[in-house]
Design a protein that fits this description.
This protein is α/β, with parallel strands linked by helices. The protein is built from 7 helices and 5 strands. The model has no long low-confidence stretch (mean pLDDT 87).
């Protein structure tokens, strides 16, 4: 699948901060940073993919009403991409490549086998859909996917403040 420069993928942490506006203690600064980044993506006319497994990550602890509300918000604003045959093939290739790497056992121990597979599924969905990048602040979880897709942290988006020349000192 050819990569498209207008298509990006967001990981669950980006949605937790930018959409749900929730943060763990010490991560509160990520909420305005992520909101600004998502606004930037919209203004830049980027199309945003959310892999379907992320819906599970975001909603499994919620009650029925909250779950429906979050899923409705996501499906209204983003493209929800399934784990389909193409993604499954890419995922299996990635996992096979991981397994042949000398550091595979260390990575599997650090992340856990389930988390390794889950994050590989998410990356595979992004790749299968032609995403240019996958944005997450858990880049270490996707380190092995970086040979297949660009994995980047949420960048800081500077905000232009309004300049009022009429109120400058000396006038």
């Amino acid at each position: 699948m050819k990569k498209r420069t207008d298509l990006v993928c967001l990981d669950s942490d980006v949605l937790i901060w930018g959409l749900k506006k929730e943060a763990s203690q010490g991560q509160e600064h990520m909420i305005p940073k992520t909101v600004a980044f998502i606004d930037y993506l919209y203004k830049a006319k980027k199309r945003i993919i959310i892999p379907a497994p992320i819906l599970t990550e975001l909603t499994w602890v919620l009650d029925e009403e909250q779950r429906a509300n979050v899923i409705q918000k996501i499906t209204k604003r983003f493209i929800v991409a399934p784990f389909d045959e193409r993604a499954a093939l890419i995922c299996s290739k990635m996992l096979a490549q991981y397994q042949s790497m000398p550091q595979y056992e260390e990575i599997k121990l650090q992340l856990g086998k389930r988390r390794l597979k889950y994050d590989t599924m998410i990356a595979a969905i992004a790749i299968a859909n032609g995403c240019e990048r996958l944005y997450t602040n858990n880049t270490e979880d996707y380190a092995l996917a970086s040979s297949f897709i660009r994995v980047e942290e949420i960048p800081y988006i500077p905000e232009q403040k309004e300049i009022n020349f009429d109120n400058e000192a000396g006038q």
